[in-house]
Each structure stands twice: as C-alpha cells, then as structure tokens.
Amino acid sequence: MKTKIYITAMLLYLTNIAITPAQTLSHKGLKDYYKNYFPVGVAVNLAALSDTAERNLICNQFNSITPENAMKMGPIHPEENRYYWRDADSIVAFAQTHHIRIRGHNLCWHNQVPNWIFYDGNKKLVTKEILLKRLKDHINTVVGRYKGKIYAWDVVNEAVSDDSTQLLRNSLWYKICGEDFIFKAFEYAHEADPNAILFYNDYNTERPGKRERVYRLLKKLIDARVPVNAVGLQAHWSLNEPTVLELTRAIEEYASLGLKIQITELDISVYPNENGNRALKDAENTAFTPERAKKQAEQYTRVFEIFRKYRKYITGVTFWNLSDKYSWLDNFPVRDRKNYPLLFDQSLQPKQAFWDVVKF
Q: Which of 21, 134, 157, 323 is 20 to 30 A removed from 121 (C-alpha atoms)?
C-alpha cells in the first residue's frame, strides 16, 4: 500500500509542475534552433525530473526524452512475475504533461538483463522456445503499456560483435537462440504497437569495420522483411572521432538501405579515444581546460554541420544525459574521473560548445 501511495504522489508531483517564464533560460532552446531540422532530445532519470533547475532546463531545451535506465529489462522486469513501473511511468507522465516526445530504450540487450530470463528453476539455461516466449511476453507487456505514448523503441541494442571475425555478439541471447532473437524481437514489438518506429541501436557504428557489420545485419533484416524502420547511432564520441569522412559514409550507407537514422546517445568526451587502453595514469590532468573546451566545441560543431546536411535522413538527435553535473562517463572507462562531455556545465550553464552548435 505504501508503494502505491508513493507512486501516485510522484506521478501527481511530476505531472503538475508549472514551468514559468522566470524559471526558463533567457536564450532559445536547442529544440527551437533546430525546429526546422529534427527533434533534439535528452536521456533522463527520475532524479533529474525531481530537481527544479534540471527539470526547467529539460523543458526549455528539449522536445524529446529517453529514459536512461528505467525501461531496460533489468530495472523494469526484475523478476519473471514482477514488473517495476514507478520510474518509467513517472517519466512518461512528465513527458506527456509537457508535450515532449518519448523514445523507449530498450527492449532486448545483453546488459542490464535479469538472470531469470535465461535460466530455469534448476539454474540451467532454458530452451530457445522458452526464451523467445519470455522475450515476447516482456515486449508485449512493456510496449503494450505505453502504446500510443512512446513513438519509437530501441528494440535490439548492441547485438553486433566488436570482433571483426564475427557478425553477432556471443551473448546468451545468441547462444540460446542464434540470430532469431533479433528477428523475433522486432516482430514482437511491431505486433505490440504497429505504429511505433523500431530501431536497431549500436555504438561505434561509424568505425569502418563495425559499420560494415552493422550494415550487413540491417540488410539481412530488411531482406527477410523484418519490421526494422531505423538505425540508432549511439554517438559516444571523443575529440578525435569520428572523422567527417567516417560519419558521412556511415550516414550514407545506412540511409541507402531505406532506413531513417537517429543520433541516440550523443556525448563527446574531452579525452582522446583510448583505443581499448581504459586506464589513464593517476597523474593525468583531468581538469576541463580552455584547450579541451575549444577542441570539444570544434568537434560538436563538425558533427552538427553533418547532422544538418543530412537532415533528410536524420530524424532526431538525443544527448546522453543533461549536463556535466552528471554523466554516465563519470565512471566509465575510468572510475570517478570527470568527463565533461555535454553542452551544459556542472552549474547547468551553456558551454562554448552550445553556442557553436546553435550558431548557423
């Protein structure tokens, strides 16, 4: 009973927030600068929506949101016969109240997935038939709950291998089902909401080797008439990647398949790509220096010039987190290292990169 009362109170709180002119920033929002190009979104969590300043910044700047973690399988479906709706419901209610579009993220992934989905009562791997049934039940329940409220879903996330000798990641999904889990996930999502735009979402989609493998998977799905509508480029980038050539080739190749494209998880690290060597020396300067600010602004400028050029294909750009106050990169790949990857600083003020992105 206490849980139900808390959920009701939270929903009422989040859906009755008034955003007054005095609370908003004095300048136009990203959504206003890019209104003739594409929606501009941000990944959010319940903590951000519960903070007045962050909430105001979201409403001022963005017209699309993605739940950062609340709809992933582990958080939303922790046990076979139990769903946890509070956070996801609160985010959806907030977005609807403020007329913000919602992207669902995600339905099938090898991370943040509860162990129960792969194992039986004897702690042995389930059969392909059982696993696909569990996947179908999960997708029907989650997509069905938000049908008509969520316009797009990241259906399958990061299924392509980083190993150049393999097409698909050797996850438990793949070990038990082969490639069929990908095909079926899209079919189940389309059945649950025929009007939702269905995405395959992945990272390093601009690097030539990974790009070729992602392209192969997408073409295979399309040739098999699987209802995949679009591809999400996660865009966890750095000061030195992607290059202009890499990004333009990626957009052109995916678009050639007849798919729409979204930049789904954008941030630009102030550190160069570490090429798999994830640990930095303790003595390295980790301050947000003027030099790093300048290089970050230049990289943001380059990629947004490309986004505008290819607006025929790009139907949305979403930042992965709101400001440098909090970013998932604060703990990855180096724990407790501040990364400063976004357009707003730790005080929620626009950085030089912001002004360069809107100056066109």
A: 157
Position 300 in a domain? yes
For residue range 177-192, what is the model confidence (pLDDT) as tens digits? 999 999 999 999 999 9
pLDDT band for 11, please (50, 70, 90 cuts).
low
Residue 336 is predicted with a pLDDT of 78
How many structural domains are present in the chain? 1
> Cα–Cα distances in Å, from 192 out to 142, 264, 272?
9, 22, 42
Note whether residue 278 is domain-resident: no
Decide if 279 is inside a domain: no
CA-nearest of 220, 247, 234 to 301 is: 247
CB atoms within 10 A of CB 322: 26
Nearest CA-CA partner of 139 in 77, 199, 59: 77
Examine the pLDDT at 111 and tell me if it is beyond 50.
yes
Q: How many residues does the chain have?
A: 360
- Secondary structure (3-state) at 265: strand
Does some domain include residue 166?
yes
Q: CATH code at 108? A: 3.20.20.80
Q: Do residues 303 and 237 touch, judged by C-beta distance below 8 A?
A: yes
Residue-range definition of the domain harbouring residue 261: 2-273+285-357
Residue 17: φ, ψ to 5°: -85, 130
Helix axes 244-255, 290-309, angle to 10 degrees: 30
Pairing of strands 197-202, 152-157: parallel
Residue 156 neighbours by CB under 8 Å, 6+ apart = 106, 107, 108, 109, 181, 182, 185, 186, 200, 201
> Residue 206 in contact with residue 256, Cβ under 8 Å?
no
| Number of CB atoms found within 10 A of residue 120's CB | 11
Distant-in-sequence contacts of 281-287, Cβ < 8 A, 24+ apart: 286/337, 286/338
Q: Which residues are known to be catalytic?
A: 158, 265
Nearest to 354 by CA among 7, 10, 61, 52: 61
